[in-house]
């Protein structure tokens, strides 16, 4: 079957190369920017988002999104969460009902607080849907450093999941808790921003450990609210991803927190990220607004929101957080 990956950032590019190597089939990789398509076509390398990594010869780049998905039997979406819906609307007439769609982006939609699986179901008339999430830094996976991930679905055959994604360095654990896996993937990014702030302020590992623990508690609370399984939060997609994202120098969200602590504006942070997206920033806004509306107590999310979007002084936010927990 034809396979397409939408989104040629570091993660989308890495997944496209894994699938191409695993299946031996051509994988169409859609890039919003023509310069990325050209780079891959000419140099077999995504010089902007994944420099130094040679990609499979079976990865075929394109900047034509509709052509990429037309006739595809499997589509992987690796588009930042806040842009997913608009992209799906532009291709919905080209996606067959029997197509399998697997989402690899982590986040929640602003204003609606909808999961990416919900957005996909609303925009595409498909029957088989899955989500991929876990402690998966593209910089490591692309270099074939051993990594484990979770792919959650209610109806995609395990055989298809394993044969498409699993290889000697990328271990795949099938799961059935789609909601829980998605909530974990979104919530851990908010905590990573907070730990980045703590680190940049020089407050030490003890404080970081406390913040990660609080973040886990709030992850569990939100997951249970949406009927996700609590045990999912204590597995690879939850604690595993939370720890990796909060402690790694490769984490975009931790880096965003470090920049916030240095007084950078959101506009300046976007510039410093060089096109990469810190999903935790819009996710923090989405979760905070939802929690306020539904009276869910999330002190870490609340104080993070006030620092990021209301310019609350960091020391005041820290003091208030200590008082509230």
Question: Notable features of this structure?
Answer:
about 325 residues, alpha/beta, N-(1-d-carboxylethyl)-l-norvaline Dehydrogenase, domain 2, 2 domains, eight-stranded mixed sheet, globular
* Number of spatially distinct domains: 2
Helix fraction by DSSP (H/I, runs of at least 4):
40-55%
Q: What shape does the CA trace take? A: globular
Strand arrangement, major sheet: 3-2-1-4-5-6-7-8
Count up the helices. 16
The CATH architecture designation of the largest domain is 3-Layer(aba) Sandwich
**Which sheet architecture does the biggest sheet show?**
8 strands, mixed
The total count of strands amounts to 8
Structure report:
The protein has about 325 residues and is α/β, with parallel strands linked by helices. It has two domains: about 1-175, NAD(P)-binding Rossmann-like Domain (Rossmann fold, 3-Layer(aba) Sandwich), CATH 3.40.50; about 180-325, N-(1-d-carboxylethyl)-l-norvaline Dehydrogenase, domain 2. It has helices at about 10-25, 35-45, 65-70, 80-90, 115-125, 140, 160-165, 180-200, 205-225, 230-235, 235-245, 250-260, 265-270, 280-295, 300-310, 315-325, and strands at about 1-5, 25-30, 60, 70-75, 100-105, 130-135, 145-155, 170-175. An eight-stranded mixed beta sheet has the order 3-2-1-4-5-6-7-8, sandwiched between helices. Helix 8 (about 180-200) runs antiparallel to helix 9 and helix 8 (about 180-200) runs parallel beside helix 11 (about 235-245). The chain is globular and about 55 Å long.
